[in-house]
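Re: beginner question about structure tokens

> Can someone show what the tokenized structure looks like for a real chain? I only ever see the sequence side.

Sure, here's an example I had lying around. Input first:
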Amino acid sequence: MEFDKRKYSAEEVLFASGIKPIKRIGQEIFFRCPHCGNPKGKLKCSVNAEKGLFGCFQCGTGGTLTDLFILSTGYSGDRKTVWKEIGRLLGEQTEPVKEAPFQVKENAAEAKRADARIIDKTYHTLLSMLELNPEHKENLLKRSLSEREIKKGLFASLPKDREGICRKLLAAGCTLEGVPGFFKNRRGEWELSGRPGYLCPSYQMGYIIGLQIRVDKPLNGRKYTWVSSPMKQKGTSSGSPFTYLGDKNARKVLVTEGILKAYVIYILLGKRMAVLGVPGVNTTHQAIQFLKQLRPDTVFEAYDMDKCMEVADENDERKKEMINKAKDKLHKDLNKSRIDVRSIYWDKDHTTGIWEGNYKGLDDFLAWKLRGCS
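And the corresponding structure tokens:
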């Protein structure tokens, strides 16, 4: 008998996803975003129980209940089997579950985030134990990175055996509790979360403080997510950290969008300028506070050229408005601290000011300009 997804409510999907609701207002059920963890507040992410759609105003993640389940659990199976898996987790394949047993989830206790040095040691050891599969290596080579630069970047593919890698880390003397991405599963075993893809380290002051995943199968158009385990037993949210590469006393800092993109730009610029990569233009608060403390003389804003694209529909208009709003916020907040902010542009028609559509990111433009890669 084919599984009927209409038998399961939004509340039940949340439970199967390991998500604990915070509050309900009408049809909106609020919860912590499984992507960014809502670092600045609780009521930022919700699902509409009637429409079956969710969205986070903190990081911009959104989609259907199917997308939410995949994002929360790291489910790597076919989308067609998602609802069968939800039914299995709820313990009911063919009959409707009248009420999701939320009281079970109440027992799940997140771990306090570990010290940066502990997280750095665990992540470094993890990356040293993993390999980079040929498909992922080819993807990085196409970004104009050399094999040596890829190796120096510590990129690695996520393993299939998520419990086995945890046993190896524990045997190596690593701490897993409090390190984002690790959690105790239903069997009481340590497990590593994350959708299939390759890992991109995020650095702050020389420490690896987060691992972003370039996923194999983009979810609702999103190519990146985090090694993160909020709302899971002994789990910890990544917090969607920014990455900072270069001299901590740098007088000039370039700000771009993306953890991997920041590394590519840093390499292509010959490491002559510090580069800060925010995970998304809606998650810049931590980065702005960091720059205020760093107090460089000049910050160069290099968000994607969506900020100058020709608008074709409402979706383009929203995207352009979002990135320009983030750009203006960066200028405004840093100018208040007497830090000069300059926006830089490329691949732009000098007459109309419209993006010509060839190189969206600065990394793509530099790869073409400096290394002849298109």
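Each token stands for a local structural state, so reading them left to right follows the chain. Confidence is low (pLDDT under 50) at residues 92-107.
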